[in-house]
Amino acid sequence: MILLLGKQGIHAREWVTPAAALYILHQVLDNLSSDDANSTFSGLNYYILPVVNPDGYEYSHTTDRFWRKNRSANNGSSCMGTDLNRNWNHKWAGPDSWSDPCHMNYRGAQPFSELETQAMSKYLLSKTGEIKGYMSLHSYGQNVLFPWAYSYTRPSDYKDLYDLAYYMAYKIKLENKAIYKFGGAAESYYIASGGSQDWAKAAAKIKYSYTLELRDTGEYMFSLPPSEIMKASKDAFAAFTVLTQKVKN
């Protein structure tokens, strides 16, 4: 069985997400080094991509702290970048995606127009049937979200997804005293199309596909102070542990 954690830093300004992914990686490696065959994390393969959008991430450090997109050129426009989380080929060009290259939610000229989404989607499709869990880290909002994001329609296995989201939120609250809302992405957060969470479930056939919107709820927004980074990372790890246990069992 394979568990994949992917798509951190897809939005350049969400700095806490690569940190949280690296924290999860560190915790998993520490756990596996104990050689305990019965540990939570044994018996699975993990694919963790800490930064999906390195050019945008770097640009947000050097030039524009709140840059969202990647840094690819757009034909016929002086505006740079595509929103990589509007570029996936499931319900592409639907709600909350824009055809204007200057908009922060620009969806790209066509689905998978970007090298980043091309690479990730090809890899995921090469593992169809093997990957059982997918978690995308974002900020901010403190939400555990699952498909569908493009529509208020609920998937046929809504209850399975809802129940696991509940346990993720419960574990975060139990361990870290943080309140995370949970539910279908469109219903609980906002409607958006062309995202990887929906594509992972619909095209790559990953049943347990989630988005975790990390801390906070609006006080610091994308600019969490250093004192909050470890807290957000522990939230992510708590949810990841629940997903891992589900996949393993």
- How would you write the strand order of the largest sheet? 2-1-3-6-4-5
The level of helicity is: 25-40%
Low-confidence stretches: none
Radius of gyration: 17 Å
Largest sheet: 6 strands, mixed
Number of strands: 6
Query: What is the first-to-last residue Cα distance?
Result: 10 Å
Q: Note the total helix count.
A: 7
Tell me what portion of residues adopts beta-strand conformation: 5-15%
Order of helices and strands: EHEHHEEHEHHEH
* Class based on secondary structure composition and strand pairing: alpha/beta
Mean of pLDDT:
95
Taken from the alpha-carbon principal axes, the silhouette is globular
Kindly summarize this structure in a few lines.
The chain contains seven helices and six strands.
Description of the molecule:
The chain has 249 residues and is α/β, with parallel strands linked by helices. It contains seven helices and six strands. Strands 2-1-3-6-4-5 form a six-stranded mixed sheet, sandwiched between helices. α4 (158-176) links the parallel β4 and β5 (181-184). α1 (16-32) packs across α7 and α4 (158-176) packs across α7 (226-248). The longest helix has 23 residues, at 226-248. The N and C termini lie close together (10 Å). The mean pLDDT is 95.
